[in-house]
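Bug: token stream looks shifted between consecutive jobs. Job 1:
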Amino acid sequence: MGSKERRERAKENLREQIMDAARELFVSEGYESVSMRKIADKIEYSPTTIYLYFKDKTDLLVQLCDETFARLGERLERIRQKQEDPLLALREAARAYVKFGLQHPNHYKIVFITPLQQEVDDERYAFEGSMGERTFNYLRECVSACVEQKKFRPVDVETTSQALWAAMHGVTSLLVAHTDFPWVSREKLIDHVIDTMIKGLEP
């Protein structure tokens, strides 16, 4: 490996260290309470170093969210490529969504659970055109295809897509946040939630 490649790898490794530290602090202390200096102290670098990679705390948060959606989107895209039946694709995607949240709880908490200040709700954090919208579009497309192929009764695609996401977010967030609750088998619970919402949409 040449010196240029080593430098690039070192830069990417440091960027990941910054993001990992920020993610952990945002979850444990709350976004509002975390400063760029506190993130820098955690990885034992100066705040100036972090500003070489991120414009400000909002930029860091947006990139954390984009990275999470990109990882989730990659999983959903693999399902799209191998599964032609939209109903089976929807079932697999729902399972993949929950599994992602359970495998990456801090990623999931930052994007879907942690309350964020109004100050981050600006044009840099807009939903339209974001990685989040692109990921949600996968769900919309599955629902639309199920309606077109009469696997679902005629339903409003947008409302149904949001309802399905709400159901999957509910089970994911509960499993992530309440690990001490005496849940039944995770797989049994997840499959039952998916089966229940699918059956409610069938003709």
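Job 2, same session, no restart:
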Amino acid sequence: MAFGGVEVLKGVDIDLFPGEVHGLIGENGAGKSTLGKLIAGVHRATGGTLAINGTPRVLTSPRQAMDLGVALIHQEPLTFPDLDVAENIFVGRQPQNSAKQIDWKGMYRSADELLASLGVSLNSKAKVRGLGVADQQMIELAAALSQHAKVLILDETTASLTPKEVGELFTIIKRLKSEGCAIAFVSHRLDEVFEICDRITVLRDGEKVGERIPAQSSIPDIVRLMVGRDVAAAAARPVGPDQPVMLEVTKLSQGSVFHDVSFEVRKGEIVGMAGLVGAGRTDVACSIFGINPPTSGEVKVDGKVVQIRSPKQAMTEGLALVPEDRQHHGLLLPISIAENASLAILRSLTRGGIIQSKKIGDNAETYRAKLKIALRDVNQPVKDLSGGNQQKVVLSKWLLTQPKVLILDEPTRGIDIGAKAEVHRLMRELADSGLAILMISSDLQEVLTISDRVLVMREGQLVKSLKPGEATEESVMLAATGQVAHAS
């Protein structure tokens, strides 16, 4: 497969068998998502053959692929925000009654049954607008199951899920596997790949560099195949109480969404915020940043009480927010990488009301090197980048504002293990230079690895603050789910 003369897939061979989960892994830009889109008819290959059930096919559309039993759950959910959940599940193929009219009752009943089978608590009549990425992915999965897909490609479906939700998804995958479905599982979470996959194919720079059986391999072996080197993690370290408090939140509330949330983040500290999807973590971040201002409570930045009513005001006070949904809330996809990176500081890049293009390009080149963004040219559209590299562009945009407090909402969602380690090292460097960081993540291992302290939210409340040494997978999940530890 080639885009604009650049070959992104080179002679890749892969077989998907009924009753098997096949892991597809590699760094950002390795070609995983492109391969999935070729199989699902989104793109048309420039070379090679594709056979379904032994018959060579030339797929010209996702609809044709779906008619042949192939479905793709995209890394970035493709839902219609102004349609409801059921309409999204059955879009383009709504059930009809004898009068050839839409059978609304039947459609909502079927949607409820599908969602129940997935263990998802969603109102089938609720509009999709406002739902999180995890819920939208469950809607796409329900749509695929409603069409009885026999080849299912899951592209980073677990990236926004908590461990509990991942377990529920794996139960569904195992059921589909037992029913003879062939599943391609794309993920950067190698522990999940080893847990659920029967075989693993590793891509690097658009080529297949290896195939492994999990029981006969190891995570370090796979990492070396992916990146061609060993990857070390950035370690957390405690921040002394003598460091000034840069962000102080006191009894912050927003209607019925969350209430009485209080915490602080000190200079040079990384505070992780954990909890199940829907616990209110992102809502707290959006409230602090002025997207949805709080109804009560107090926020202090660098010791000063602030009344933040808009993101613009938040930026003026020294706050920055890297959002969870990069494509809708972090980027303008049609414009260039350089322009996206400079969006938050355009005023400082103007002279006499004219934007200085050279400064925009220089800034982009600086962070291209710092974050190791894989791209052809900083002037190419940001939509051409892989998901992980798009996330790096969002991160560079906010770092250019030189904030006092950086809020990161799922900063490594859809980022490969090598790039994740780079982001973690950058976070540690930023903290060591004095930046206060609040990190929201559904990746529990990430929270435990990089955080100096861990906050746990449940049902709109902050229920636990864990110091270094207290935070473990068990202690965080017990607090997040409201369970009590059993005596061993």
